[in-house]
Amino acid sequence: MPTYVLGGRGVYAAPAQRALSVRLPEETGNRADCPSSSGMPPCARHFRAMPIDLRSDTVTKPSAAMRQAIAAADVGDDHLDGDPTTRRLEARVAELLRKPAALFFPTGTMANLAAIMVHAAPGTEILIDADAHIVNLTAAGITAIAGVQPRFIHPSGRTFNAADIRRSARTPSRYSPRASLLCVENTHNGAGRAHEPGDASRNVVPRA
């Protein structure tokens, strides 16, 4: 049975208190004008400030109710019978995403690396957005540990399409690495948290 990799830093549960209205950022620049030389993720500076900070799940601190839920959570040993709270989380996420199974990882970096090592053989290359999180913010683990090299896709829009993939793909040659994986980041942090509907991603993959 296939396993689907998920990543995150923690799971918090708390009673709903009040609804929070969030205004999405407005685009103020084109992706083509987004150099990566600043200390910020590419394109991030081209979006106006949001009313709340959603850059990371570690920026927002857990409330007292969240901390209480964490302290009262059922715990177990992953080496023996597994942690029951983690198992319930994995089952719930698999249900939401309509997947056969899910696997919790402590960090997104670890989850990304594990997924690449499962699907891509060492000595091959992966097709990936040039501004992807895996490219800019995972300490080159795909090369140092997984043994693959990136082949950059430069999207014509905020995210790439089938034509962008075909334009970026290498002409097959016995002297060149074989492409073994297409990485799709959704939501796309480097493109201002751009989100592609599920149908859009599914339409891109067969054309790869």
- Shape, please? globular
CATH superfamily of the largest domain: Type I PLP-dependent aspartate aminotransferase-like (Major domain)
CATH architecture identity of the largest domain: 3-Layer(aba) Sandwich
Order of helices and strands: EHHEHEHHEHEH
Strand content: 5-15%
Features:
about 210 residues; alpha/beta; Aspartate Aminotransferase, domain 2; 7 helices; disordered N terminus
Report on this model:
The chain is α/β, with parallel strands linked by helices and 208 residues long. It folds into 2 domains: 4-13 and 23-105, no CATH class; 108-207, Aspartate Aminotransferase, domain 2. Helix content is 29%, strand content 11%. The protein has 7 helices and 5 strands, in the order E-H-H-E-H-E-H-H-E-H-E-H. Strands 4-3-5 form a 3-stranded parallel sheet, covered by helices on one side. A two-stranded parallel sheet has the order 1-2. It is globular, with a radius of gyration of 19 Å. Mean pLDDT is 75; it is low at 1-45.
Please summarize what this structure is.
The chain is of the alpha/beta class. The protein has helices spanning 64-72, 84-97, 108-119, 133-136, 141-144, 162-168, 198-207, and strands at residues 4-7, 102-105, 125-129, 149-153, 179-182.
Question: Which SSEs are present, and which pair or pack?
Answer:
Blueprint: E1 4-7, H1 64-72, H2 84-97, E2 102-105, H3 108-119, E3 125-129, H4 133-136, H5 141-144, E4 149-153, H6 162-168, E5 179-182, H7 198-207
Parallel strand pairs: 1-2, 3-4, 3-5
